[in-house]
Amino acid sequence: MKIAMLARNANLYSHRRLKEAAEARGHSLDILNTLRCTVHIASHRPVVYYNGEPIAAYDAVIPRIGASITNYGLAILRQFEMAGIWPLNESVAIGRSRDKLRALQILAKHGLGLPLTAYANDPKAAEEIIRAVNGPPVVIKLIEGTQGIGVVLAETMSSAKSVIEAFRGANVNILVQEFIKEAGGTDIRALVVGGKVVAAMKRTGAQTEFRSNLHRGGSAEVIRITPEERSTAVRAARRMGLNVCGVDMLRSNHGPVIMEVNSSPGLEGIESATGKDVAGQIIDFIAANAAGGKTRTKGKG
After folding, report:
1. Are the C-beta atoms of residues 59 and 290 closer than 8 Å to each other?
2. How far out from the chain centre does Cα 11 lie?
């Protein structure tokens, strides 16, 4: 099987592991710098060019699109889909997951556990949305943020209003969420592949840090998740339309609540914490499911 990966940095742990796992199973995997891909749009001939040349035929594509180039990366991925190349995660599903507000609305519609969340455009409504999520304290986060960047814990009404007004004054879109104090600065990352949780870890934030992201200095350890947490992760992946994703949850007094569904989850932390060959399971899923024409959306969306 010939597999393409859309990724800007071929040296990242996750990308190296996926390439190693594919080659160990007898497949070939080419890592294509997403920004060096271009599309030439013509009727009935969807083609992707790489470094100015039409790409070779591939059986599948793994999108590892950075958050900063989401729109461009999705345009390239749609072209692969229209050419009949099977994507590990489809463009429409990735687009849903990258828009935090849309993702939460989809999950809420299907009854999945979420922290109380409010969104408003008018900075004058700051106090209203703070009280709507039973705050303060509240967590304020950029809709387009990733890896814990653009996430602020505001512990008083005045500080929360100041942060909201500052963000909105800069024309930045934000969400305001309740602070789940009982989580104690830890969260759970459940990695879903093909409708099954294949690995799970508990992440704990660095001292004095409420964010548990490993990129922010947090630590990780293997954890046994509850049946409810497992079901929540699987249902979240299904509702978002993602074959592979990391579902981040907090343990609240009223059960698991979803913080984020990540369509390009990193593999280093979870493989190190659990000792599981997650990359291999992803490649096995591709080999078992990739087939030309099986893209549900055919590049629409």
Report:
1. yes
2. 20
Residue carrying the six token digits 């991925």: 77
**Residues 189-226: pLDDT tens digits?**
999 999 999 999 999 876 655 555 555 557 789 999 99
The dihedral sign for the CA sequence 31, 79, 263, 234: negative
Domain boundaries, given as residue ranges, for the chain: 2-95+285-289, 99-113+182-276, 117-179
Torsion of CA 90, 31, 188, 249, to 10 degrees: -30
> At CA 128, angle to CA 124 and CA 130, rounded to 5?
110
Which amino acid makes up residue 129? Answer: I
pTM, full prediction:
0.88
All residues at 6 or more sequence positions from 4 whose CB lies less than 8 Å from its CB, including other chains: 29, 30, 32, 55, 58, 60, 61, 62, 80, 85
Reading phi first (left if > 0) and then psi (alpha if -120 to 50, else beta), residue 136 is in: beta
Q: Are strands 2-6 and 28-32 parallel, antiparallel or unpaired?
A: parallel
Looking at the domain that runs over 2-95+285-289, which CATH code has it been given? 3.40.50.20
CB count in 10 Å sphere of residue 90: 26
Helices (H), the chain: 13-24, 70-82, 91-98, 100-109, 126-132, 157-169, 227-240, 268-274, 278-289
Q: 3-state DSSP call for residue 120?
A: coil
